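Internal ticket - ligand job 331, VTB:
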Amino acid sequence: MSFESQLSREFLRVVEEAGIAAARTMGQGDRKGSDRVAVEAMRKSMDSLPMRGTVVIGEGERDEAPMLYIGERVGRQGDGDIEVDIAVDPLEGTNLCATGSPGAIAVLAASNHGGLLHAPDCYMEKIIVGPAARGAVHLDASVKENLSAIAKRLNRAVKDLVVIVLDRPRHQQLVEDIRSAGARIRLISDGDLSAGVSAAVRRTNVHAVMGIGGAPEGVLTAAALRCLNGGMEGRLVPFKEGEEERKKFTERLRGMGIADPDRTYSERELAPGPDILFAATGVTDGNLLRGVRFFGHGSRTSSLVMALREHSIRFIDTVRLDGSQDAVVEF
Ligand code: VTB
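stdout (structure tokens):
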């Protein structure tokens, strides 16, 4: 039995717990507090899982993150338990949760040992598309060329495409290029991971995600894309510009075994594992997932659980009752 089937129910519960904890803090204006409760809930619910897990993408280095730090062992670590590498983003879109804006999610991905790129905490330049345009877009091609290629694969005009871009000053040129190519744009304040997942699902009205976002989010996106047959190219880039920064960055990557800092990775290279589990729960309402609803005697969550080897994509709506005899479930 692959670990996908052994762990998918458990991982669902882990992201649900993190999502519910974060959702309780929605709109409190405290992004760190929201993140903290999501991390604590995720950490706690992972403890009892029948696995020997290692966090490969997490909340940061050990000295800066008390929980879910890179290298932390999670799960019950039993002798016969399966070994997995784990990437977590307990609250993707901390600002979105803090302000009650759409698109915050709790996310987790797991793979076989070595199945997820150990991306350092840096940026990643990304281009993300759905299955139709997989293999047709390249970071080295111009924006115009990429948009034409996507339009052609989707059998429509460039003006009918919607591209999601993080609203950041660094994307000024990119936005100008998309505009002059004639495509439509949705600027988002945060959350390029859930945007990337949406791009790989038909009828979400998202056809591509372009620009520079977090590298850890990029690896998690790649894990989701593999399950959805989406396409992606990513390239690691330093947080800051300048020659000095670039030099330090190159050395850091070398130390991690990445010889070519300019390497372009496909979704398959970012998440090469033969088994991949991806689980996400909506914290606030989004394109694919609804936010957590509390109804007095419990909560209702909307989640996505995908398994690569099993080719399964599950949209799961869970109602949890608080045990009260008066609790009522609505359809
Ligand atoms: C993006 C966004 C995330 O980080 O990856 C972004 O999708 C990149 O960093 O939700 P900057 O904010 O520095 O642009 C997040 O905003 C937070 O992880």
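Auto-summary: Residues 130 and 202 are 8 Å apart (CA to CA). The longest helix spans residues 3-23.
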